[in-house]
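Supplementary Methods. Inverse-folding protocol.

Structures were first reduced to a discrete structure-token string of length 358. This string, shown here, constituted the complete conditioning input.
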């Protein structure tokens, strides 16, 4: 119970527990366990840096004014502005008035090695009140694992009319659960036509900014998995008279389709687009359940089948040199599902091993 209380406080209020150079944290939490008035577990201060190191690092850098426009080191925090166009309230706008622009702030940093959930954006407003999490769509294969924070309205720490308008606008787009920004009765009745479109554009802009910051990185990190280090090493052609070797690109997911079978298994078909290469590609598809809370549990494949353009061996997909498009199909094993397949979204991670290993 003590550990659960500490963890819940850290998960729900980590952002409010972080202070900057000019101001302390908005909240401090300590947990002590007693039985019949006797201390069983001494007082423990909830430390957001211990429970969410990457997210805490991102917000701390922003509050201290130490963010950078582009990631160049493993502990850096990159920032970008994401415009939110606030639609005028009904009866207050002028003709053809599209509204007031509010620059929200996106913070992105490499994920910590201990993070079970990554490649997510924690969106917040107000006194750093977390509203929702979203995963950027269409992330290129090989994108570094990251954590990101989106600050809007009062959460930016700024003042001004645009901040007040953005805070009220986003608040109007939240249901009573305060768990997303979407269509609500208050939004459609209080704001001029187009308010929902502005919310959707804002979400798309968040994804776009995250993709830009994540793929632009050319960071140098010590250590790390050997496979990753080898993939980030550019080999020079030492043949006499040879020109500079072209930088190798990596496979990307072109399309993905999935359906739930009567047995409860997920049936997934993935189409890969591959660059021209001299060696085989060895890819490992990993199926996970994207549950509402906690880490994403990994589930097993009951069947993994390649097509004419690739083959499946020992849980890997092997693509021969020169193949530019490959398709494979996987069926999950319902016996390894922590919950019924219909109760969770399926996430597919495609891990890339060294070329030539096949």
């Amino acid at each position: 119970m003590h550990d659960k209380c500490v963890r819940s406080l850290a998960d729900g209020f980590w952002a409010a527990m972080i202070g900057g150079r000019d101001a302390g944290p908005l909240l401090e939490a300590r947990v002590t366990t007693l039985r019949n008035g006797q201390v069983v577990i001494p007082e423990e201060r909830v430390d957001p840096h211990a429970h969410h190191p990457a997210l805490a690092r991102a917000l701390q850098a922003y509050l201290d004014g130490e963010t950078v426009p582009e990631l160049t080191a493993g502990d850096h925090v990159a920032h970008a502005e994401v415009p939110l166009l606030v639609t005028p309230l009904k009866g207050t706008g002028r003709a053809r008035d599209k509204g007031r622009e509010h620059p929200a702030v996106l913070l992105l940093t490499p994920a910590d090695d201990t993070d079970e959930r990554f490649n997510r954006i924690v969106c917040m407003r107000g006194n750093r009140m977390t509203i929702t999490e979203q995963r950027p769509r269409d992330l290129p294969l090989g994108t570094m694992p990251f954590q990101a924070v989106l600050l809007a309205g009062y959460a930016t720490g700024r003042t001004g009319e645009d901040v007040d308008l953005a805070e009220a606008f986003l608040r109007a787009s939240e249901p009573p659960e305060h768990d997303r920004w979407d269509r609500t009765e208050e939004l459609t009745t209080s704001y001029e036509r187009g308010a929902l479109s502005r919310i959707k554009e804002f979400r798309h802009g968040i994804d776009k900014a995250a993709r830009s910051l994540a793929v632009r990185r050319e960071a140098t990190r010590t250590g790390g998995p050997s496979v990753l280090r080898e993939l980030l090493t550019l080999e020079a052609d030492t043949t006499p008279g040879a020109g500079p070797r072209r930088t190798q690109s990596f496979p990307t997911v072109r399309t993905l389709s999935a359906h739930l079978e009567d047995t409860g298994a997920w049936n997934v078909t993935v189409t890969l687009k591959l660059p021209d290469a001299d060696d085989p590609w060895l890819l490992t598809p990993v199926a996970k359940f994207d549950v509402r809370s906690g880490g994403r549990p990994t589930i097993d494949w009951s069947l993994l089948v390649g097509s004419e353009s690739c083959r499946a061996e020992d849980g890997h997909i092997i693509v021969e040199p020169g193949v530019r498009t490959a398709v494979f199909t996987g069926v999950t094993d319902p016996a390894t599902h922590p919950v019924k397949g219909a109760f969770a979204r399926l996430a597919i991670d495609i891990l890339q091993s060294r070329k030539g290993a096949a």
